[in-house]
Design brief:
Blueprint: H1 2-13, H2 16-35, H3 49-60, H4 70-73, H5 76-88
Helix pairs in contact: 2-3, 2-5, 3-5
Length: about 110
């Protein structure tokens, strides 16, 4: 039956060690699709899928690597997608480094 297949698959996908990589993969796929839209560039043409995919992976992994100039190649929509990818994949609530002088490093 369908329930017999779904339960092991659901258990496989929801295993704690797989949630973060699957979330990153999902963000990369969504980012690639959004950056592949003609709306993502100022001109009427669609960006190449490889450029969209590379930019999406770079934004999700916050590497800062680019193949095109972000300010001129991407439209404001495309730039917002890139910023959103970088922000949603930053780990919220991650411990911040404490400096000896307090929160702002002032002694």
């Amino acid at each position: 039956t369908n329930g017999d297949v779904v339960t092991p698959l659901l258990r496989l996908v929801t295993h704690p060690a797989r949630i973060v990589p699957l979330a990153f993969l999902g963000a990369i796929v969504v980012g690639t699709v959004l950056l592949s839209l003609p709306l993502a560039t100022p001109g009427p043409t669609r960006p190449p899928v490889l450029t969209s995919a590379f930019t999406s992976v770079s934004a999700v992994c916050v590497t800062g690597l680019i193949t095109v100039d972000t300010a001129t190649y991407w439209s404001p929509f495309g730039q917002a997608v890139i910023l959103g990818l970088a922000l949603i994949t930053a780990i919220p609530g991650a411990p911040r480094r404490r400096t000896p002088g307090g929160e702002h490093g002032v002694a």
